[in-house]
Amino acid sequence: MVNVALMQENGTQFDHDVLIIGGGLVGASLACALGGSDLRVAVVEAIPLGSSAQPSYDDRTIALAYGSRRIFEAMGVWDDIEANGAYPIRRIHISDRGHFGIARLAAADAGVEALGYVAASRAVGTALLQALDALPRVTLLCPAEVVSVEPGPEAALCTIRRDQTTQRLRTRLVVVADGGRSGIADALGLPARRIDYQQSAIVTNVTPGRDHEATAYERFTETGPLAILPMDPSRCAVVWSARPQEADTILGWSDAEFLARLQARFGQRLGQFKRVGKRQSYPLLLTQRREHIRPRVVLIGNAAHAVHPVAGQGFNLGLRDVATLAQVLSDAVAAGDDPGTMPVLREYARWRRGDNLLVTAFTDGLVRVFSNAFPPLMLARNLGLLGVDILPSLKRAFTRRTSGLHGRLPRLARGLPLSP
């Protein structure tokens, strides 16, 4: 159990300027984004980075929006991510199983070379770790367990346990990036609203019988969305949403039965599926924290908002948190301000509020609308898909938003250096 108390100490000495709790993809991205600034950054992570036990660096695939590529390019890590196996999505095909609605998106609709990319978490994590190793102002404290976080008026005190030794670290700001079930956020008294979608995601990869032509498929079914994403020239990643009681059954099918059932659910657009990889399952939840900031504390990524994987928005949303927070903190330091004070953190919260609410409502709405069998709603959603397909202005707006290119963008999300 993490203990939280109010720190009353006054003083001017700090071990770090920013202490990031959580060394997963979001926490490591923030450390990389801040690595070239004047801030002294530390990352605390309980599980050894790069190990098989580290869930943020496993073989599961993630969809990276084009806007996320820009952020990684500006951070100087995109070339390594691409070299480790990021595959472009040139087109997206969206359909409602058993109904007439269909929408087809292309990179040209957004004026970009790709709508997004598919990469293994391990590929992104490896690139981030390589970058962190070269940043002298970033300290990795791993493996280390957070014992307590004590926010105070002048600083925050974080107590960690590492190698059977307890350390007390003073920092200007604590960034909580420890995932959707954040024990730190709970202990800080930041309540979470959680919705169980009564769905589990079955993730694997398959070999299609036809060339996927860099096309991603999002197919809505009665048990939830089914996504098939190009991950290299001969394989596709699969994210199959199913009812929880069906998940164990699906995991227990033979490879031949799994492929046959997937074929029946998806259809023949990719020909006959030939091979399937290892299958894993995880529950799907919506998590929203009502507050993302407190004095000396800010929540980012899934610790602040974990959304349904439909449309591949979750990690991209967290990465936009990273780009925005990095700019706000960098600008504050350049102006001589304390980066952990509420005026600075309120600027970050105001900037991110609209995007967070919109993406949460968008993903939640897709799941609810496309799983509802009410005939008028079924007609409306299929007409909506057709509208996106045939109306150029609507298609461009939809494509740019889902690609992370809409609204007020921080410098990193525009492909620019953190400091002007």
Which percent band covers the strand fraction? 25-35%
CATH topology call of the domain at 3-88 and 118-193 and 288-371 and 410-414: FAD/NAD(P)-binding domain
Share of helix, binned: 25-40%
User: Unreliable stretches, pLDDT < 50, 5 or more residues?
Assistant: 4-11
Termini Cα gap? 42 Å
Tally the helices: 12
What is the highest CATH level, the class of the domain at 3-88 and 118-193 and 288-371 and 410-414?
Answer: Alpha Beta
How many individual β-strands?
Answer: 21
Structural class: alpha/beta
Largest beta-sheet details:
9 strands, mixed
- Overall body shape: globular
Instruction: State the CATH architecture of the domain at 3-88 and 118-193 and 288-371 and 410-414.
Output: 3-Layer(bba) Sandwich
Gyration radius over CA: 22 Å
Mean pLDDT: 92
**CATH H level of the domain at 3-88 and 118-193 and 288-371 and 410-414: which superfamily?**
FAD/NAD(P)-binding domain
Describe the structure.
With 420 residues, this protein is an alpha/beta fold. It has a domain at 3-88 and 118-193 and 288-371 and 410-414: 3-Layer(bba) Sandwich (FAD/NAD(P)-binding domain), CATH 3.50.50.60. Helix content is 35%, strand content 30%. The chain has helices at 25-34, 66-75, 78-83, 107-110, 121-133, 183-187, 244-252, 255-266, 314-334, 342-370, 375-390, 392-402, and strands at residues 3-4, 16-21, 41-44, 61-65, 87-89, 91-96, 102-106, 116-120, 138-141, 145-151, 156-162, 165-176, 192-207, 215-221, 224-232, 235-242, 275-276, 280-289, 293-294, 297-299, 305-306. The strands form three sheets. Strands 1, 2, 3, 9, 10, 11, 12, 19 and 20 form a nine-stranded mixed β-sheet that branches. The chain is globular. The two termini are 42 Å apart.
